[in-house]
Amino acid sequence: MGEAQEHHNGPLNSNGWTEVTRVGDTVRRPVRPFTATVHAFLRHLHDQGFEGAPLPLGYDADGREVLTYIPGEVPVEPVPEWAAGDHQLADLARLVRRLHDAAEGWVPPPDALFGTLPGTPPPGVEPLFLEPELVSHQDYCPGNVVFQEGRPAALIDFDLARPTTRVSDIANALYWWAPLLHPQDRGPALHSADVPYRVGLFAEAYGMSPGQRSQVVDAAIRRQRNSALTMKAAAEADPVFRRWWDEGVKDRLPRAESWLTENAAALRRALQ
Fold first, then answer.
1. Residues 6+ positions from 4 with CB-CB distance below 8 Å
2. Model confidence over 135-165: pLDDT tens digits?
């Protein structure tokens, strides 16, 4: 199974970019420029009844942010078999829908700062939308989804939460969980997955409108083109991203774009 955190104190598995420590029923993380904005967003989500995210509890004596600990199992990339079923995908879609519904209407404070990848975005990055609709998670990698009793129950690590649209946010989730990857870059559990079917399943479970469905494939392709540029810039600016880049991201991203382009028609049919 995944990474179940059984001890009450100690380091938690993270993305290698952020030091995360559990202390009792809380999680402690370094404060960043965007931490206050994320805390305001998380409080709004809880005020709207969304419990699938940590609740901020302020700061500790060491100057770290303090969040509630969410028990459960967190899968490690690539998506393992126990997390890769159709039921799990549908539950994730419904979790994202509840997040979106709770987030809609939140107005960030005037001094809001949002997290970004390291580095300066290079020329060629395409806008994913004309106007944002809401703030949302934007980083649904397996390590950011907490499973309880074998089903997705909560989301953690809102460091890249920022203004977006429902469709653009969904494209991020589909990249990891459909997944919108070339078969050679998928784990064994999803190597032979019927990806168009899984994309349609996600759309149905989320309750996507016809207009939203018509935008998904184009948004995913644009996102993939952008990722190749922004991840390269991040690798040039940060050693952790350089390691990920050299370990395969530099090849995986263009393969994903090629696969998406070649299978765009099948994906569009599945979304009709």
1. 72, 73
2. 999 999 999 999 999 999 999 999 999 999 9
Dihedral sign from CA coordinates of 88, 89, 93, 99: positive
Instruction: Give the pLDDT confidence score for residue 8 in this predicted structure.
Output: 67
Tens-place pLDDT, residues 208-231: 999 999 999 999 999 999 999 999
The verdict on pTM exceeding 0.85 is yes
Domain 73-270 has CATH 3.40.50.300: no
pLDDT of residue 218: 97
Q: Is 78 helix (H, G, I), strand (E, B) or coil?
A: coil
Domain with CATH 3.90.1200.10 in the chain: 73-270
Task: Indicate the class that CATH gives domain 3-68.
Answer: alpha beta
Non-local CB neighbours of 257 within 8 Å, separated by 6+ positions: 221, 224, 225, 228
DSSP 26-74: EEEE---TTHHHHHHHHHHHHHTT--SS--EEEE-TTS-EEEE---SEE
Delimiting residues of CATH 3.30.200 domain(s) in the chain: 3-68
